[in-house]
Amino acid sequence: MQGYLSIGDFAKLRNVNQKSLRYYERIGALTPAYTDPDTGYRYYALEQLVEMDMILMCLELNIPLRDAEQYRNPDKTLDIRRLLQDGRRRAQEKLEHLQATMEQMDEALERIAENCPYQAQAGSYTRHLHQRLILRESFVPSGGELGVKQSSTKIFLRGQSLGLLPAFTFPIGLIAERCGPEIKTSIFLEVLRRKEEISAVETLPAGTYLCQQRPSCELGDVEGLAAAYFEARPHADRVIITNLTLAQFDVKNPVLELQEPL
């Protein structure tokens, strides 16, 4: 039809399929400029590419198409300015999320590279560990592995409420400290550096650590694990128990690394 584009030609201009265009019509997001009453063929005006671009932007930014009507004025014209302003804000949020994810992945790859030389290391060994930032809270070593998982969930949620970015791989650890005849235990969430300072975030200093590896099943008795370590190392006053991030992750039996600062 002269002056109009067929549904097939219009679909090709934005690399969408005809089925999608019919769906957009059905929900009222994009109505053909003309529908032949005899054949039912749909035709679109070239200017409707602006509306098509609005739909594609909404899809890209996860704006429900049924909400796209909010960008139409009462006379059915498009409020392009508000659409672009909202689109830009959502795109910025998406970009910030992707940047945070990249930061998490870069940190995890660095950690894997550092840990590879110690994979399946037997006995005790010393290694240098970089400074780590943690969010920490008291932990009562009871309830076995379930207790650790419940406390892990709790501190994850706390970190989220503070706007902290956790490390990419499972970033939960325990710190056992000798306090006279008692052993006090805390659980921590390892986080990445943020621009703003948060007072709740502590530092595990860089330095040389005496390390040994244990199976994760020993988290079922954290109290016994810590007590046995301090009995074997009478001069130690602190041990960090955390997972060893490796290139291959065994979800059923991840490896623990016990780290004593020297």
Fold and architecture overview:
This protein is of the alpha+beta class and 262 residues long. It has two domains: 5-78, Orthogonal Bundle (Multidrug-efflux Transporter Regulator, Chain: A, Domain 2), CATH 1.10.1660; 110-261, Regulatory factor, effector binding domain (Multidrug-efflux Transporter 1 Regulator Bmrr, Chain A), CATH 3.20.80. The chain is 35% helix and 24% strand. The chain has six helices and eleven strands. Strands 4-9-11-10-6-7-5-8 form an eight-stranded antiparallel sheet, with helices on one face. The protein is elongated and about 90 Å long.
Short description:
The protein is an alpha+beta fold. Helices cover 35% and strands 24% of the residues. The strands form 2 sheets. Strands 4-9-11-10-6-7-5-8 form an 8-stranded antiparallel sheet, covered by helices on one side. Strands 1-3-2 form a 3-stranded antiparallel sheet, covered by helices on one side.
How many alpha or pi helices? 6
Which outline best applies?
Answer: elongated
**What's the rounded overall pLDDT mean?**
88
Compute the number of strand runs. Answer: 11
CATH H level of the largest domain: which superfamily?
Answer: Regulatory factor, effector binding domain
Domain module count: 2
Weakly predicted, low-confidence segments: none
- One letter per element, helices H and strands E, the order comes to EHHEEHHEEHEEEEHEE
What share of residues is helical? Answer: 25-40%
Structural class: alpha+beta
Q: How do the strands and helices of this protein lay out in sequence?
A:
Blueprint: E1 5-6, H1 7-13, H2 18-26, E2 34-35, E3 42-44, H3 49-60, H4 80-115, E4 125-129, E5 132-138, H5 144-161, E6 172-179, E7 182-191, E8 201-204, E9 207-215, H6 222-232, E10 238-243, E11 255-261
Antiparallel strand pairs: 1-3, 2-3, 4-9, 5-7, 5-8, 6-7, 6-10, 9-11, 10-11
